[in-house]
Write a structure and sequence with these properties.
20 helices, globular
Length: 499
């Protein structure tokens, strides 16, 4: 079955329609990634409702290609104007911008292009190779495990995101609460609709994604007084930059492995992987001037960013647990097109999963071709006026939202949730945890009630090791994740006394 699904997915991925939208997505992602303050979550959220007319597999290929393209595009602004277009490119500024000031901007851009695409290419290939093992793991999960995985996903993200753990849990719980608005999943009763028929279908999760990412980000961008420093001259050599990547194979491969491995951990994301890769490169280097224009300081974070995309697809497609804003939007796209992460995508619809993996593989080849071609013109992308971008994004956000259900309630949801998202960021509440609460809420609720139907109302199905050992293990991990930060100080004091 897996071999048949692979070749069926391959035929979809290399079709003219898929290749066209793959190219469009990558180009759009590169441009959005190069614009400070925009990035892949905003771009994907805007495009999401516009994918409704597309076939589901092609629509997901478009979203993933925007994500992958933005990973590379963020390095353009990071290197040229010291303002990372995406959060994951922040580590690239540490040595990328100093290289530009030293007259090696073309070298830095060529390094970023080659390292990002080459490691992304290898990671996507590895993802295809390990997919048979993933199939066996995913198909071993049932409703109780998927309910617990949804809770674990929210728990992990509230812990690993910066800020108060309590604030992260509050944000995730609030998202769960908002997901209960409307008619119940397994009952015909309306909940929290206040007699308004427009709320019977609940708050559309796509409208929530657009509001929390696109609209809120535009408010945040408009509030900034200064976006970036001045653009530097495009000096240096593209050829020397490419050669530099192959002169440091150890740094490249190590960064790629870190990127893919960290990407598989829900809640980590590309920002974590790029900084970890940069720190490891600096730690293991016997010489060098990291922070002053060392080429390895560009190779490491850029070599980790696109492998993170491949790694992040594992929990998102396998268990419906996205680890970042971009994968949260991708999960929204999966659900919007009537697909379900987990056994379905790794069972009867396995060809869709393979088509996505293969498209990611092909996309990284295209990044090399496009990235190296646009280097002489890269500075023009960063010169686009944000006063033009902001109103365009806002208009597209509202227009795209209205096309979802032709409902003004969805448009109002974008406005209100956008304002909420803006103030959540200001007061250090996790926007990602909130969004995941909305997206994962229905999945958790449905699997919770289905589990109780299976057990006849017996809650021990979630934690009895003799009935479902995997559920018991997941319940234990959730407790450790939630209680660990509070128990850690007491444990450290106890260990100090023993010593």
């Amino acid at each position: 079955m897996a071999i048949e699904a692979f070749f069926e997915g391959l035929s979809v991925a290399i079709s003219l329609d898929a290749l066209f939208w793959l190219t469009v997505g990558l180009l759009l992602g590169i441009v959005l990634g190069a614009l400070p303050g925009i990035g892949s979550p905003v771009g994907m959220a805007i495009v999401l409702p516009l994918t409704l007319p597309l076939e589901s597999t092609v629509a997901l290929i478009l979203l993933i290609s925007i994500y992958s393209g933005a990973m590379f595009g963020g390095s353009i602004a990071a290197i040229l104007i010291n303002a990372p277009g995406t959060e994951s490119a922040a580590a690239t500024t540490l040595d990328g911008y100093p290289m530009s000031k030293n007259g090696l901007a073309k070298n830095a851009l060529a390094i970023a292009t080659t390292a990002s695409a080459l490691n992304g290419f290898l990671a996507a290939g590895l993802l295809i190779l390990i997919s048979p093992t993933l199939i066996e793991v995913v198909l071993s999960f049932g409703s109780p495990e998927y309910f617990l995985l949804a809770i674990l996903g929210i728990s992990l993200i509230t812990i690993v995101t910066q800020g108060s753990i309590v604030k992260g849990l509050v944000a995730g719980a609030l998202g769960f609460m908002i997901s209960t608005i409307g008619t119940g999943i397994l009952s015909p009763r309306p909940r929290f609709t206040f007699g308004m028929f427009g709320l019977y279908d609940g708050i559309d999760f796509v409208a929530a994604l657009i509001g929390m990412f696109a609209f809120a980000e535009m408010m945040k961008l408009a509030a900034r007084k200064q976006i970036a420093e001045e653009t530097v001259e495009l000096g240096g050599s593209i050829r020397d930059g490419i050669r530099s990547v192959f002169q440091h194979p150890k740094t490249m491969l190590k960064s790629g492995a870190l990127g893919m491995g960290i990407g598989m951990i829900p809640g980590s994301g590309a920002t974590t992987s790029t900084f970890v890769a940069y720190a490891e490169a600096a730690r293991s280097a016997e010489d060098g001037l990291f922070g002053e224009g060392d080429e390895r300081g560009v190779i490491a974070p850029e070599g980790a960013n696109n492998p993170t995309v491949s790694g992040s697809l594992v929990p998102t497609l396998s268990f419906g647990i996205p680890g970042s804003g971009s994968t949260a939007v991708l999960l929204g796209g999966i659900l919007m097109h009537g697909l379900q992460p987990g056994p379905v995508l790794f069972g009867e619809q396995l060809q869709i999963t393979y088509a996505l993996f293969i498209s990611l593989f092909l996309g990284n080849v295209l990044i090399i071709a496009v990235g190296l071609t646009i280097i002489p013109y890269a500075s023009r992308i960063t010169e686009i006026n944000t006063n033009v971008i902001i109103p365009m994004v806002v208009v597209l956000a509202f227009a795209g939202t209205y096309t979802l259900n032709q409902s003004w309630f969805d448009v109002l949801a974008v406005l209100l949730l956008g304002v909420l998202g803006f103030y959540m960021v200001r007061y250090n509440y996790s926007v990602i945890a909130f969004v995941l609460g909305i997206v994962l809420g229905p999945i958790a609720e449905e699997n919770f009630f289905r589990s109780l139907q299976i057990s006849g109302g017996d809650y021990s199905i979630f934690f009895d090791p003799t009935v479902r050992p995997l559920s018991f293990l997941l319940s234990l991990i959730i407790l450790l994740v939630l209680l660990g930060p509070f128990l850690k100080p007491s444990l450290e004091r106890t260990l100090d006394r023993v010593r």
